C-alpha cells in the first residue's frame, strides 16, 4: 500500500507515452518540476507525486497499491493482467478513462512473399511476440494450435532471422511491417493509453482529488474532439 498521503501517479519515464502524459497532467492543472531526471516528480500546486517508470511496471504498481493511478497502454495492461492471473496474483484495476493518445493495434503479420493467408495457415506455426498472453488467448479463442515465441524487442526481424514463421506486434502506421517485408493480418487487440486506478484506494482525500481532476480530464478530451 502507498505510504504517502500524496496521490501517486505512475507514468512512462521515456518513450512514446511520456510527452502525452506530461502534457495531459499540465492541461488538467497539475504543475510539475520535471526538469530533473528523478524517479519521483513532486507537484508544486497539488498533493500529487508522479513516478516515472518503464511502462511495463505501471500495471503492477497500480494493482499492488504502490501507486494510486497510472497511465499505460491497454496492450501492456491486458498482458500484465493475464500474466498476474496465471500466477494467482491480484490483477484488478479500475479504468477511469480511455485517453486520446497511444493508439495502436496488436496485429498478426507474416512474410509478404507468402501472400494472403487464412487463419488455418497459423496451425503449427511459431509466432514471435512481446505479448504472449494476449496472443495465447487469441489462439485459444480461434482454436488455432500455434506457439508463441517471446521476444522483447526487434520482433519484426524474427521471421527473417529464422526465429519464427510470423509475428504478432504493435502497429501504428504500418511502416515497420512494410520495411521488413511483412504483410499485416488480423488485429487481435486495439489499444489506447488509459488512466487506471487501484480499486482498493480508500483514502477520502485522494478520492476527492481524483473526483476534482476527472471533469478537467473530460474537458481536455472534449476540447480536442
Ligand atoms: O522503456 P519502456 O519499457 O517504458 O518503453 P517501451 O519501449 O516498452 O514502449 P514504447 O515507448 O515503444 O511504447 C509505449 C506504448 O506506446 C506501447 O505500449 C503502446 O501502448 C503505445 N504505442 C503506440 C506503440 C506504438 N504506437 C508503436 N507503433 N508502441 C510501440 N510501437 C512500435 C511497434 O512495436 C513497432 O516496432 O512501433 C513500431 C511500429 O510502428 P509503425 O508506425 O511503423 O507501424
Ligand atoms: Zn516497455
Write the layout of secondary structure elements.
Layout: E1 7-12, H1 18-27, E2 40-42, E3 48-53, H2 58-63, E4 69-73, H3 74-86, E5 94-98, E6 104-111, E7 126-129, H4 132-141, E8 147-150, E9 166-171, H5 175-179, E10 182-191, E11 193-197, H6 204-224
Parallel strand pairs: 1-3, 1-4, 7-8, 7-9
Antiparallel strand pairs: 2-3, 4-11, 5-11, 6-9, 6-10
The protein binds phosphoribosyl ATP (PRT) and zinc ion.
Structure description:
The chain is α/β, with parallel strands linked by helices. It has two domains: 7-102 and 192-224, D-Maltodextrin-Binding Protein, domain 2 (3-Layer(aba) Sandwich); 104-191, Periplasmic binding protein-like II (D-Maltodextrin-Binding Protein, domain 2, 3-Layer(aba) Sandwich), CATH 3.40.190. The protein has helices at residues 18-27, 58-63, 74-86, 132-141, 175-179, 204-224, and strands at 7-12, 40-42, 48-53, 69-73, 94-98, 104-111, 126-129, 147-150, 166-171, 182-191, 193-197. The protein has a six-stranded mixed sheet with strand order 2-3-1-4-11-5. A five-stranded mixed sheet has the order 8-7-9-6-10. The longest helix is centred in the last third of the chain and has 21 residues, at 204-224. The mean pLDDT is 96. Bound molecules: phosphoribosyl ATP and zinc ion. The site of zinc ion has 3 residues, from loops.
Amino acid at each position: 500500500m502507498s505510504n504517502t498521503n500524496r496521490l501517486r501517479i505512475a507514468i512512462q519515464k521515456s518513450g512514446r507515452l511520456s510527452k502525452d502524459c506530461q502534457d495531459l497532467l499540465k492541461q488538467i492543472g497539475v504543475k510539475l518540476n520535471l526538469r530533473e531526471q528523478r524517479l519521483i516528480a513532486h507537484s508544486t500546486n497539488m498533493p500529487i507525486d508522479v513516478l516515472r517508470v518503464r511502462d511495463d511496471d505501471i500495471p503492477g504498481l497500480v494493482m499492488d497499491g504502490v501507486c494510486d493511478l497510472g497511465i499505460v497502454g491497454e496492450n501492456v495492461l491486458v498482458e500484465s493482467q493475464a500474466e498476474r492471473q496465471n500466477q494467482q496474483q491480484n490483477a484488478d484495476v479500475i479504468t477511469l478513462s480511455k485517453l486520446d493518445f497511444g493508439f495502436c493495434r496488436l496485429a498478426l503479420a507474416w512474410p509478404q512473399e507468402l501472400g494472403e493467408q487464412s487463419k488455418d495457415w497459423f496451425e503449427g506455426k511459431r509466432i514471435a511476440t512481446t505479448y504472449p498472453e494476449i496472443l495465447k488467448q487469441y489462439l485459444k479463442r480461434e482454436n488455432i494450435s500455434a506457439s508463441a515465441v517471446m521476444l522483447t524487442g526487434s520482433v519484426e526481424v524474427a521471421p527473417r532471422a529464422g526465429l519464427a514463421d510470423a509475428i504478432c506486434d504493435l502497429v501504428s502506421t504500418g511502416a515497420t511491417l512494410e520495411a521488413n517485408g511483412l504483410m499485416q493480418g488480423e488485429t487481435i487487440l486495439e489499444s489506447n493509453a488509459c488512466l487506471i486506478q487501484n480499486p482498493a484506494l480508500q483514502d477520502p482525500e485522494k478520492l476527492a482529488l481524483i473526483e476534482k481532476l476527472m471533469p478537467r480530464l473530460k474537458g481536455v478530451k472534449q476540447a480536442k474532439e
